[in-house]
Design brief:
262 residues, alpha/beta, binds ligand T3D
Length: 262
């Protein structure tokens, strides 16, 4: 019986995506890359889905490219692996205007590390680790790593991690500002702060959160003046939502808001 390389379920308004090739540490083959793209597309298009949680099944988050696949004679070529597998995934993670929470449950190497870092809020288990493994096999960091990592931790640290390919712990990743939080977790997902945070975000004013993501994305290449203009426009848009009215009314009526993501 074949099992899917991507497990997908929707819990209330939260999409839960699990990379599922545990025998090879959830490394990406072509099928898994295309299936993740399709799953993210589904999350984008379904208005009931208001936040996305991504993690790995088994002891790893993801060991990057499946290296068996690249050496096979009929396997995909480097250009298409980067251009058709990983680049669309990274663009979707950044462009979907819903919060995307990643829980790095174990090792995250190569493209696996950079896919995690492209998510909006990254938690990692205290036993997890991050490796910019590319240099060890003569490649350059891809999957947005050369764009995102220096912006998270600075040019010098990013260069060293990318050139040396050192494994760093999740505590160190948190200390560097590479991830939001390192966590001690139990087997029970419902007790996991990463999952609870994703669930909480899925009940928040998610149109506003999506616009926040848009503003942050654009800020990376804007001047202050351009960015102030963007804030003015996006705030005007956020002010037209049901959730803005609900938030203000709930505050004034001293009750809990019931946000709808509209
Ligand atoms: O052409 C291109 O490559 C373009 C693509 C670029 C994007 C990239 O992601 S490049 C980077 C590719 N990834 C790596 O170089 C990481 C390779 N893996 C490792 O270095 C280690 O596995 C880890 C440090 C991630 C974990 O080490 P450890 O000791 O915990 O586990 P292990 O024993 O090495 O691995 C367990 C099994 O998973 C093992 O199989 P086995 O012996 O039990 O049958 C191992 O071969 C398999 N595995 C791990 N990573 C990969 C993999 N199989 C295929 N591809 C992998 N990337």
């Amino acid at each position: 019986m074949s099992t899917s390389s991507i497990l997908f379920e929707v819990k209330n308004n939260l999409a839960v995506i699990r990379l599922n090739r545990p025998d090879v540490l959830n490394s990406f083959n072509q099928e898994m890359a295309f299936l993740l793209q399709k799953t993210l597309q589904k999350c984008d298009e379904n208005p009931e889905i208001r936040a996305i949680y991504i993690t790995g099944n088994g002891r790893a988050f993801c060991a990057g490219q499946d290296l068996e696949e690249v050496i096979s004679k009929d396997g995909p070529k480097l250009k298409s692996i980067v251009g058709e597998h990983y680049n669309p995934i990274i663009m979707m993670l950044r462009k979907i205007e819903k919060p995307i929470i990643c829980f790095v449950n174990g090792v995250a190497a190569g493209a696996g590390a950079n896919i995690a870092l492209a998510c909006d809020i990254v938690f990692a288990d205290a036993k997890a680790s991050f490796i910019q493994a590319f240099s060890k096999i003569g490649l350059i960091p891809d999957s947005g790593g050369t764009y995102i990592l220096p912006r998270l931790i600075g040019f010098q640290k990013a260069t060293a991690l990318m050139m040396l390919g050192d494994k760093i712990s999740s505590e160190e990743a948190e200390r560097l500002g590479m991830i939001y939080k390192s966590l001690n977790t139990t087997e029970n997902e419902d007790e996991n702060e990463a999952f609870a945070t994703a669930m909480k975000l899925s009940k928040m004013p998610t149109v506003g959160l999506g616009l926040t993501k848009r503003a942050l994305n654009i800020s990376l290449s804007n001047t202050l003046e351009e960015q102030l203009h963007i804030e003015e426009n996006l705030q005007t848009l956020a002010g037209t939502t049901y959730d803005y009215k609900e938030g203000v009314n709930a505050f004034l009526e001293k009750r809990k808001p019931d946000f709808k993501g509209k």
